[in-house]
Amino acid sequence: MIKFFRKIRYDLMEKNKTGKYLKYAIGEIILVMIGILLALQVNNWNNNRIERKKETNYIKNINKEFKLNRKQLDTVVFYHRKVSNNATKILNLIPIDIKAVNKDSLSFYISETFNHYTFNPQQSSVNSLTNTSSYELISNLELRELLQKWDEQVKDYQEEEILFKEYSFDNYVPYFNNHISFLAFLNNTNIFDYNNVDYTFLNSLEFENAIALRKELVNDIILKSELKEINNTIDRIIELTSE
């Protein structure tokens, strides 16, 4: 093809047809420019096709991960609420009539306050977008913004869970270590089932404070705005990534 155009140029120059040669030269330049533009357009189409394929894969994985996150968060909150509800039941019994109280029920209430589940979401797709600076692949601007804020939202929510967990290991469990049978707790039997039990601790200020603070810390998780925000974000991301 190049030889063909070159032969035409030579013929026009040899025949001294300058005007026609100039017109031809301009036409040839225009054809070359059109060819370049078409090649660029084809390249853009290919790049867009590749990016849209990547976006589709991300969207599918994000949807799958956040559906799992929804289930996990629901489970975690379920156990948080159990802690709060059982702590409330214990506080409603105070002052406890040691002779009249149903010790099996009280054992169950206390045992249920030892739950300390934490929310650890799956977010490999979000991390991949962050680590590769690829958020621009997500064409939906609302979804992109939600994903960019997700990690910070999780950290804000987890702050209360971390405090709750630290109190469990540093204060709550050590306190009850002196008053109940953890072997019975692990076997799901009455935690007061051991010799020479002293039930008087149930009416101590330390016991009341331990239960009250346990309830307060878990309520900081389930009643504050961070949980509502993270719930809304999960639901909206699932909605935006559903086919």
From TrEMBL:
The protein here is known as DUF6090 family protein
Spans through the membrane: 21-40
* Keywords annotated in UniProt: Membrane, Transmembrane, Transmembrane helix
InterPro entries annotated for this entry? DUF6090
Keyword Membrane belongs to the record: yes
Instruction: State the species of origin.
Output: Geojedonia litorea
